[in-house]
Amino acid sequence: MKVIVSSASRSPLLKNFPLTLDLAPSATVADVKAAIAAKAPKLSASRQKISVVGDKKPLADDSPISVTGTELAVKDLGPQVSWKTVFLVEYAGPLIIHPLVFHLPRLFYGNDVKHSNLQIFVYAFVVLHFLKRELETLFVHRFSHATMPLGNIFKNSAHYHLFSGLALAYDVYRPKYGANSPYVHGTVRDSPEFLWVGAAVWLFAELSNLHTHLTLRNLRAPGSRERKIPRGYGFTWVSVPNYFFETIAWLVICFMTNSIAAWVFTVIAVGQMGLWAVKKHQAYRKEFGTSYPRGRKAMIPFVF
């Protein structure tokens, strides 16, 4: 079967296009990508977006060419980086920044800070949260796409490094929240009961978030592309309970400190998670149709 592949972007790697590929009748889009990479080694399969000529919608790797047609276009997506690498870099930022600000206050504030129990609790919450994320990236998450454009690592990392990293750390470890500050000393923020109740709610949210990730991982066997409806704890109410539980965890920090940096980060994060949740919810309903539970909301139980 002859397949003609033309260029859909201005890239020096596509200067010899169009190409004519000789493929088996059972060939898929993945076979097209492999054949292109064989002829243009620098254009790896992960850099390629294959579509039908005149249609920008990308074709899935398992789409058979006998159905998609033999006139295709390839777009160079540019240098790629693995999703796992992106996640590891994103979460490493706060894990480096928070200890620096917490343990070296003179470097950031010009004087030492006697840390309050509130600051110690928040420090533990943040470090454990991002350490959990790093471990989930290494041992729990399976990524439906192997790579993303290299430039995205800078955009994605900025959100975590600047907002949940530098801004949050600088705000909550400053003298205002210190042990001798009237904002904390002698107030509810200095109460062990208040701190431990906050810690209990935070731990519930983090463990529930982890449980959700493990449920999603167990939906598919390694190497399988079969998709199933997620069910069980959390999924009774919403399509993406991991976002719901993460929201609770960050709200605990917001209410315990009333830090403007914590609120700004949480509002931005929840807004973005809400967009992703709606998209995922709609995708589930489209894919599974009437089989998908009708009573589920996208992210917040009984709300949306």
- N- and C-termini, Cα separation: 49 Å
Low-confidence stretches: none
String of helices and strands:
EEHEHEEHHHEHHHH
> Can you tell me the number of structural domains?
2
Count of β-strands: 6
Q: What is the typical, i.e. mean, pLDDT?
A: 94
Structural class: alpha+beta
State the helicity in percent bands.
40-55%
Rg, Å, rounded? 24 Å
Assess the beta-strand content as a share of residues. 5-15%
How are the strands of the biggest sheet laid out side by side? 2-1-4-3
Number of H- or I-type helical stretches: 9
Major sheet summary line = 4 strands, mixed
* Assembly state of the chains shown: single chain
Shape: elongated
The gist of it:
The relative contact order is 0.09.
List the SSEs and their pairings:
Elements: E1 2-7, E2 19-22, H1 29-39, E3 48-52, H2 65-68, E4 71-76, E5 80-82, H3 83-103, H4 105-109, H5 117-139, E6 147-149, H6 152-172, H7 192-217, H8 241-257, H9 260-288
Parallel strand pairs: 1-4
Antiparallel strand pairs: 1-2, 3-4, 5-6
Helix pairs in contact: 3-5, 3-6, 5-7, 6-9, 7-8, 8-9
Protein name: 3-oxo-5-alpha-steroid 4-dehydrogenase C-terminal domain-containing protein
Transmembrane segments: 233-253, 259-278
Domain 3-oxo-5-alpha-steroid 4-dehydrogenase C-terminal: 147-304
What does it look like?
- The chain is of the alpha+beta class.
- Helix content is 52%, strand content 9%.
- It folds into two domains: 2-78, Phosphatidylinositol 3-kinase Catalytic Subunit, Chain A, domain 1 (Ubiquitin-like (UB roll), Roll); 81-291, no CATH class.
- It comes from Hohenbuehelia grisea.
- It is found in: Membrane.
- InterPro entries: 3-oxo-5_a-steroid_4-DH_C, SRD5A/TECR.
